[in-house]
């Protein structure tokens, strides 16, 4: 696939108009305050695995609405003092998977908290967290569930779960609550940006080829799912464009990026039809923090840099967590 979006020079200066409604901050303050009315009730059950280098815990905590959310906590074996932590969010359709899939950060000497994504976990990796909330008519997938009202929109629940995942990680006695980074790829990258805009005291954020950014441009630029779900919904629900995009504005990564101040390392791929590079750069260029960098993969699709980006993160994140 040849390059289809803006040139790299244009990408580096592309700043779409911010779409945050006037009550954006109030909406999220109230949402998180309501979630925190529920006891976090974070539970960490040891998992019997045949590993000698790590200790693994099956996590359950209260997310949006007090709903139980699953996760994993992976620690270097024998940890006896608080460690800095990496909180990770999963790509679209996937769940937390099996614990042996998450050994990288513990092997590097960090606590590693992996959040399951409610209602997902049947596409690529298994999940264990149901979403008990119903939806008005929507396109198959998750992008249009509750799209008629920001209070009912699916990602209101997911982003709230993600903030509470940071709370849950920080609640563990072997996690240094003052040294936490967030990361994730694709959907996980979009969630990372949202959390960085909602949690002001993170040490670092590393969104990899992030999804959930610059919704209107994405929905009109690519034919690939998941953004295509928005276009297909609007194809059937003629005349609902402005209502839908107003709802999405409460969840758009560009609006969260404009509120995020943690040091950040992004990545973008110039042949990425799933998360077009202009949507990634739109969030990156709006990032409020001054310490930021972006890895660009010129001939890659949505796989981005793959293991090369993992290596970049392994070089970059420790420098922010070990200070």
TrEMBL record:
Residues 120-142 are annotated as: Disordered. It comes from the Bacteria. Transmembrane segments: none annotated. InterPro entries: AB_hydrolase_fold, AXE1_dom, CE7. Residues 1-317 form the Acetyl xylan esterase domain. Gene3D superfamilies: alpha/beta hydrolase. This is Acetylxylan esterase. It comes from Streptomyces endophyticus.
């Amino acid at each position: 696939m040849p390059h289809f979006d803006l040139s790299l020079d244009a990408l580096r200066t592309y700043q779409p108009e911010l779409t945050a409604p006037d009550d954006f901050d109030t909406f999220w303050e109230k949402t998180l305050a309501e979630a925190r009315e529920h006891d976090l009730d974070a539970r960490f059950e040891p998992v019997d695995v045949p590993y000698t280098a790590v200790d693994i815990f099956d996590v359950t905590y209260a997310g949006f609405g007090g709903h139980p959310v699953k996760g994993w906590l992976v620690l270097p074996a024998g940890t006896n003092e608080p460690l800095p932590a990496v909180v990770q969010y999963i790509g679209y359709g996937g769940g937390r998977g099996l614990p042996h899939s998450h050994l990288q950060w513990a092997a590097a000497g960090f606590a590693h908290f992996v959040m399951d994504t409610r209602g997902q976990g049947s596409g690529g990796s298994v999940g264990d967290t149901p979403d008990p909330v119903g939806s008005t008519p929507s396109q198959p997938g998750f992008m249009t569930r509750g799209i008629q009202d920001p209070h009912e929109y699916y990602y209101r629940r997911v982003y709230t779960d993600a903030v509470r995942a940071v709370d849950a990680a920080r609640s563990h006695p072997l996690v240094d609550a003052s040294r936490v980074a967030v990361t994730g790829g694709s959907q996980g990258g979009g969630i990372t940006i949202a959390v960085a805009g909602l949690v002001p005291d993170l040490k670092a954020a590393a969104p990899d080829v992030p999804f959930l950014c610059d919704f209107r441009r994405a929905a009109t630029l690519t034919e690939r799912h998941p953004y295509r779900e928005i276009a297909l919904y609007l194809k059937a629900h003629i005349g609902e464009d402005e209502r839908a995009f107003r709802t999405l504005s409460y969840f758009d990564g560009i609006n969260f990026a404009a509120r995020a101040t943690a040091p950040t390392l992004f990545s973008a791929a110039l042949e990425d039809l799933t998360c077009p590079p202009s949507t990634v750069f739109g969030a990156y260029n709006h990032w409020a923090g001054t310490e930021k960098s972006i890895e660009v993969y010129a001939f890659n699709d949505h796989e981005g840099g793959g293991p090369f980006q993992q290596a970049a993160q392994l070089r970059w994140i420790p420098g922010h967590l070990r200070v």
